[in-house]
Design a protein that fits this description.
CATH topology: Rossmann fold
Oligomer: single chain
Order of helices and strands: EHEHEHEHEHHH
Shape: globular
Radius of gyration: 16 Å
Largest sheet: 5 strands, parallel
Strand order of the largest sheet: 2-1-3-4-5
CATH superfamily: Response regulator
Strand content: 5-15%
Structural class: alpha/beta
CATH class: Alpha Beta
CATH architecture: 3-Layer(aba) Sandwich
Distance between the termini: 52 Å
Helix content: 40-55%
């Protein structure tokens, strides 16, 4: 008798305040039979990921978020959910993106480029790396906090305290 397999995650989490980006992403997921879950803030996204850790196949993160920045969210997922593929979006100038992380797509998103990164992410390929690394002591505090509380949000707050200052990295 075959053992039952765990159902495959069928959700994509989009973290972006911009309605135009959310509308551009939704139709791209239809061929994969995936549903889009939208979060307008990084805090809401972390709460969803905390409550439903195995339901998401991919996260799409805008770096320009109010409150907890997309850069902090990206770093949090890189450290505590490295198995979750991430696509990075930014409104920054292309030269800035190339200097910080060449894997971020610029807004407004080019549908062909986004489709390519979605396909890579859904195939399990890592498509976004670190945007701006946190200080080693902040990473240590975040790991200790996560080990103690198991909270992605608390770990992200510790990382935010050790991220370089900048418009995309604030808390």
């Amino acid at each position: 008798m075959d053992e039952p397999t765990q159902p495959r995650a069928g959700l994509v989490l989009l973290i972006d305040w911009d309605p135009a980006t959310r509308e551009a992403v939704k139709p791209l997921l239809a061929p994969y039979s995936l549903e889009l879950v939208q979060a307008r803030t990084s805090v809401a996204a972390l709460e969803l990921l905390q409550r439903m850790p195995d339901h998401f196949r991919l996260a799409i993160i805008s770096l320009e978020m109010s409150g907890l920045s997309g850069a902090v969210l990206l770093e949090t997922l890189r450290l505590f959910r490295p198995e979750l593929p991430v696509v990075c979006l930014t409104a920054a100038e292309p030269a800035t993106v190339a200097a910080g992380n060449g894997n971020c797509l610029t807004k407004p998103v080019n549908v062909a480029d986004l489709r390519g990164q979605l396909e890579d992410g859904l195939a399990g390929k890592s498509v976004a790396g670190s945007v701006a690394g946190a200080a080693p002591e902040a990473i240590a505090r975040a790991r200790a906090s996560f080990g103690l509380w198991g909270s992605l949000l608390e770990a992200a707050r510790e990382l935010a305290r050790g991220m370089p200052a900048g418009p995309a990295n604030g808390w």
